[in-house]
Amino acid sequence: MVYLVQSKDDFDQQVTDAGDKLIVIDFYANWCGPCKIISPKLEELAQQYADRAVVLKVNVDENEEITIRYNVTSLPTFVFIKTGTVVDFFVGCNSEKLAKTMEKYVGSECDCGQGTDDDEPDSQTPLEGANSDNNVCAINSDFIESEQPDAPDDVIDTMEQEGVMEN
Q1: What's the pTM?
Q2: What NCBIfam families does the record point to (predicted)?
Q3: N or C of the chain: less Cβ packing under 10 Å?
């Protein structure tokens, strides 16, 4: 089941309650076409992995503080967290990539960012020029510097290079 986050406190509680399960955060907006397109696949995957993953939907228009925390600037953005650490992310409406990324991290043998180069976040979807990509919606907001999520240095570097996080 996909859980719709109501507030920052609600989000923090859901993350705490997830324990050792994979947390998938879907940053979306009601006006975002690609977000609507991928939503049924996300629901399907949430049901498929219900015993090993928690799927949270964060409406960027209603939860700006969480959106800023992860420096989300394009939609949909998916952030994957395992045991309190951001292990992967991607931007765009790519249901195959969503399924493969969830499958990669729901297993009990997940290194969560401490593996081979094959475990590096996929950087196929650059944020530059996101407005011209039919699979991505850009958020028109001025974001401020904020607390960064706890992530391995290589994940943070990739997120900064792609504009998902500011350094």
Answers
A1: 0.71
A2: thioredoxin
A3: N
